[in-house]
Design a protein that fits this description.
- It is a single chain.
- By secondary structure, this protein is an alpha/beta fold.
- It has one domain: NADP-dependent oxidoreductase domain (TIM Barrel, Alpha-Beta Barrel), CATH 3.20.20.
- It has eleven helices and eight strands.
- Strands 1-2-3-4-5-6-7-8 form an eight-stranded parallel β-barrel, surrounded by five helices.
- Helix 3 links the parallel strand 3 and strand 4.
- Helix 1 packs parallel to helix 10, helix 3 crosses helix 5 and helix 5 packs across helix 6.
- It is globular and about 55 Å long.
- The two termini are about 30 Å apart.
- It binds NADP nicotinamide-adenine-dinucleotide phosphate (NAP).
- The site of NADP nicotinamide-adenine-dinucleotide phosphate has 28 residues, from strand 8 and helix 10.
- NADP nicotinamide-adenine-dinucleotide phosphate binds next to strand 8 and helix 10.
């Protein structure tokens, strides 16, 4: 896939949320790259950036063959703190640039009242400076709903390229996707497998049977065919391989529609009500 600023972004990303720091994380990242993933998603709050960096180094891949995303955590919002947070992330990962840097969560009205919008705008100004200084190639948002995004779109000198949101069967996020499409913002799906909780659905099992694939592969394919970029996490070699093996089949229109109608589900927090 391509970002609106011209940079290429690999079609599937390897997630690292809740991947324990240390050997498990190093091995998972190295294994993922060995299998073919070239896109790694991490964040300062995952507290595993040093291990992600080590996994990258052990993979033997050149830095410019990989796409690495990180995110500024909520405690580091605002202009100066965001600049420092990025500096620390670069140091921890052992790299001199990020391919993509995201604001992890918008400041919301519940926590910050009328100041929320100004905090997000200030954070965005720092993101733009990081892009100007070439410390990050692309900048974007995460967990931003349209009403969080609009003030950024109105003031940005550098437009957001990505919004990374919870997206899976049962959480279609249509309003956010519509605004992203209008503004050429790529949508990335976090928790595409619903953290593993969506996988025993009989509709998915039947479609999986038709294609000789697993329910996880069916969901990831559904995400891709909706032009959304899946980020998927595992620490198990066989699942890491399975989740990458989704480029040799296609879901029919009918199968896509059947998956669209799975029951409502949400496994993460709502950006309007998070209190962290
Ligand atoms: N921006 C944000 O706020 C945000 C929030 C959440 C996540 N994310 C990003 O999105 C990535 C993916 O989301 P996620 O980790 O929450 O959830 P996910 O990828 O939907 O699911 C991961 C869970 O499913 C299991 N699993 C993975 N592949 C499987 C398979 N083929 N069969 C059965 N079970 C499987 C994993 O277990 P094992 O590891 O034990 O195999 C793990 O428990 C994260 O890692 C992170 O990079 C971003």
């Amino acid at each position: 896939m391509n970002l609106a600023n011209g940079y290429m972004i690999p079609d599937i990303g390897f997630g690292t949320f809740k991947t324990p720091d240390g050997e498990i994380c190093v091995n998972a990242v190295r294994e993922a790259i060995a299998v073919g993933y070239t896109h790694i998603d991490t964040a300062a709050i995952y507290q595993n950036e040093v291990s992600v960096g080590e996994g990258v180094r052990q993979s033997g891949k050149a830095r410019n063959e990989l796409f690495i995303t990180s995110k500024v955590w909520n405690s580091e919002r605002g202009y100066d703190k965001t600049l420092h947070a990025c500096e620390k992330t670069l140091k921890d990962l052992g790299t001199d640039y990020l391919d993509l840097y995201l604001i992890h969560w918008p400041a919301n009205k519940l926590q910050f009242g009328e100041k929320a919008e100004a905090i997000n705008v200030d954070t965005w100004k720092a993101m733009e400076r990081l892009a100007d200084e070439k410390l990050v190639r692309s900048i974007g948002l995460s967990n931003f709903y349209p009403h969080h995004m609009e003030p950024i779109l109105a003031m940005a000198n550098i437009a957001p390229t990505v919004d990374q949101i919870e997206y899976h069967p049962g959480l279609l996020q249509e309003d956010t996707i519509e605004l992203c499409r209008k503004n050429d913002i790529l949508v990335e799906a976090w928790s595409p497998l619903g953290r593993g909780h969506l996988l025993d659905n009989p509709v998915l099992a039947e479609i999986a049977g038709q294609h000789g694939k697993s329910p996880a592969q069916i969901i990831l394919r559904w995400v891709l065919q909706n032009n959304v970029l899946p980020l998927v996490k595992s620490v198990h070699a066989e699942r890491i391989r399975e989740n990458y093996d989704i480029f040799d089949f296609e879901l029919t229109h009918q199968e896509m529609k059947a998956i669209d109608t799975l029951p409502d589900a949400r496994f993460g927090s709502n950006p309007d009500t998070v209190e962290f």
